[in-house]
Predict the structure.
Amino acid sequence: MRTHHCNELRASHVGETVTLIGWVNSARDHGGVIFIDLRDREGLTQCVFRPEENAELAELSHHLRDEDVVQVIGKVSKRLEGTGNDKLGTGEVEIVATELNIVNKADVLPFQLDKELSNEDLRMKYRYLDLRRPRMNKNIRTRHAITAAARRYLDEKGFIEVETPILSNPTPEGARDFLVPSRLNPGRFYALPQAPQQYKQLLMVAGLEKYFQIARCFRDEDLRADRQPEFTQIDIEASFINQEDIIKLVEGLLASMFKAGLDLDVPTPFPRMTYRDAMDIYGSDKPDTRYDMKIIDLGDVFAATEFKIFRSIVDGGGVVRAINAKGFAGITTGQMNRLNEIAVQAGLPVKNLAFIKLENGEYKSPLWKIFTDSEKEAVVAKLDLAEGDIVFFAAGSRDSVSTILGRVRLEVAVMMELTKDSKAYNFLWVVDFPLLALDTETGSWAAVHHPFTRPNKDDVALLDDGKYEEVRAVAYDVVLNGYELGGGSIRIHEKDLQAKMFEVLGVGPEEQQEKFAHILDAFRFGAPPHGGLALGLDRIAMLVSGEDSIREVIAFPKNNKGADLMAQSPCVIDFKSLREVYIQSTYKEKKD
Ligand code: ASP
């Protein structure tokens, strides 16, 4: 149907007769001469219809509408002096049409393709049109490029791609499962995988040694800009490796993906930080290190304080910490209210964040008159509090102070637009995660990653002693600019240790047999030491494409109610007829 695509013809093609096919991107009438920009996925080519050359054709071209599909045959000509378009690859030439075939007419579109549209529902309803737009077309192709790079890289490193079941059992990754009734097993259900975790470990027991999968995962969670009910992981597992091997492998993998998608040379190795430091210094286990605003501990400043609130917190083993938002003393009342709201949501027990700001040489603060002179001096020095700065305080347990100041830090950065024009790609490993965390609602211990994560060998004794909160895991997350790109761990490969871990998590012997017999059994037959990690492909594609929602890099995403507005999914099911199918099949089975 074509001899060239729409971003192919150059001055060197002048004189050739060519055939192009695509969509009418735009049509212009210049005093009877019709110009159309013909578009295919590669780009645009200008086609011209002159009445003096072919009156009939020019008349036909008059009736073209945006997005009609047309085939144009004509001669490549140099554009007239001064009419070139250096923004287009094909900008030096045009096709002087000798034939025009209208292949398929388009109705008037529900929205223009060359303008940004804020009505996301409309975009989603006509997603196939939305995807025609250059930005979306580019995003989808970038996603392909980075996925292809990942496949190539892993293949070169000897990894084997294996598909694992979609219809499987619940997987303990910490989210809700999507369930599917089984027609052949009435009363029983499959769960869609939250991750192929157990299967990939079983592939290690099977002796595959190096596995990967571009794996669709399903989690029934509330949606956010970087969360969808189904999403894609680059899932990796390997045997006879340690944390260092995985880290090196993944650094190379990410570098190859960012090279393919952005032509970026990512420096390796990435910096590393322990989970404890990340929480203490940035108040987050996925710190955005593009800006400082570090959390500063003021324990020594207030060690002997007589300020009652701080006194009782320090005496109770708590901490007093603060961040300095440099140059933000001009914060508006609205912004201050918003920060207070965020701090309260994050656990601040009072309504307002304590602050000190220095404006026109004057310290303004509800705390200023309470602090002693030496406390004031120490606060100013420790926080490097200068003219125009504002310092926010939090006091309480170490974890809650981290959470509060971490959230405030992020919000201040948004308000101050600290990363607006940043071109930085700050990759980071967060290591030494805790193995377990106390679920304050149920009062029981839960796995921070998942129950297959290996405790640090130096901390196994702590596990035996019941000092669960102190046990570190051999688990690592890779972070970019405040986003968790992925995470993984070295796994437990011994049956007894795995059973013990289940026990700590409140999964007794009976439930272990019922839910995890396969993996516990497998560990009896020579399971190799193994570990791995999974990367969130959607998030990586989002960051490579410079987007701020993963919906922009998924061809057919769901909205924040989990609905696909184009296909009207989820749909209503006629349960009566569904029941018939189930009853009939059970009945038939019995008869057979
Ligand atoms: N299965 C884990 C997850 O989905 C990743 C891993 O541990 O490899 O987060």
User: Anything to note?
Assistant: Residues 173, 195, 197, 449, 487-489, 532-534 surround aspartic acid (CB under 6 Å). DSSP finds 16 helices and 22 strands in the chain. The longest strand covers residues 17-30. The chain has a mean pLDDT of 94.
